[in-house]
Design brief:
This protein is an alpha/beta fold. The protein is built from ten helices and 16 strands. The chain has one domain: TIM Barrel. It has an eight-stranded parallel barrel, surrounded by eight helices. Strands 5-6-14-11 form a four-stranded antiparallel beta sheet, with no helix packed on it. A two-stranded antiparallel sheet has the order 1-2.
Length: 301
């Protein structure tokens, strides 16, 4: 009933741990699997280790979260051991989130990651708060497309994570022409918070990525537009998924699966079981036998 296929990956249900949340070790990945997730996305990994930004890097706001961790990660060589353990211990697909400042870096990290066990690659060309990477690289559509073409030769699905800060339909088209398998949409939205008593920005980096329920209408709109522009292309919808209703909204807009991220801070890993149970009960009540029947249904209503 809930099984889906996303860019050749078979998922037992349409929930995916989004990149940036708990994606740092094989032991945590096992916990995510045991909690019921259909797939696991790692934190974004770069060629060289990154320490990230100084604290404060995270702030809770009224309707969501603002973070600027700075893509802190141990680098692909160190992370390779975790990937090997994930491949050996997990039965759900492992998607490696890849970051870098150039196409060459993306290709290098992806190649090493696939050698170490990653079953798919997600290109993070949309992080809103790291200079020289993320959104800045995503603006160079031809360069990103070139990386997609090279990585596709590794024989694994290549997903491109999109941002509202891009001309995302143009970037999506260029990546599809180069062989992209699908998209993840959306990344966090660039924002900032100011302490009215200190009278200065809260985050050490000033700007951060805003996530949570407040960005869900934006994510729904982007997924809807992508599905309309590129029918049949797999999409992992991300942004404000805090329960089964939110997940279903993205699926109806055109997402084949949904990423769960910042809601884990409030609901812990129990959110995966909550979403799966809610989707199943909804389908039984409404007379649907497969989750696939709901993908993009809002376009046909």
């Amino acid at each position: 009933m809930l099984e889906v296929e996303v860019a050749g990956l078979r998922l037992r249900n349409p929930t995916v741990l989004a990149s940036g949340v708990l994606g740092v070790s094989a032991s945590l990945a096992k916990r995510v699997e045991e909690a019921g997730a259909g797939a696991f996305t790692t934190k974004t990994v770069t060629r060289e280790p990154r320490r990230g930004y100084m604290n404060p890097t995270f702030v809770v706001l009224e309707h969501g979260y603002l973070n600027a961790v700075g893509l802190a990660n141990p680098g692909i060589e160190h992370f390779c051991q975790e990937l090997r353990e994930m491949r050996e211990s997990l039965s759900i697909p492992v998607i490696l989130s890849v970051g870098g400042g150039s196409a060459e870096e993306l290709v290098e990290v992806a190649r090493r990651g696939v050698e170490c066990g990653a079953q798919a690659v997600e290109l993070n060309v949309s992080c809103p708060h790291v200079r020289g990477m993320g959104v800045e690289l995503g603006h160079r559509a031809d360069e990103v497309a070139g990386a997609v073409g090279e990585i596709r030769r590794l024989g694994v699905p290549v997903l491109v994570k999109l941002s509202v800060h891009h001309d995302y339909l143009r970037l999506a088209e260029a990546c599809l022409d180069a062989g992209a398998s699908g998209f993840t949409a959306i990344n966090t939205v660039r924002g900032m918070a100011i302490d009215i008593y200190a009278r200065k920005p809260v985050l050490s980096n000033v700007y951060g990525g805003y996530s949570g329920p407040a960005i869900r209408p934006i994510a729904v709109r982007v997924v809807y537009e992508l599905y309309e522009a590129f029918p049949g292309v797999p999409i992992i919808g991300v942004g404000g998924v805090d329960g089964w209703e939110a997940a279903l909204e993205l699926i109806l807009a055109g997402a084949s699966a949904v990423g769960v991220g910042s809601a884990i801070a409030e609901k812990d890993l129990a959110i995966f079981e909550e979403i799966v149970r809610g989707l199943k009960e909804y389908m039984e009540r409404e007379g649907f036998s497969s989750i696939k029947e709901l993908v993009g249904l809002a376009h046909r209503s």
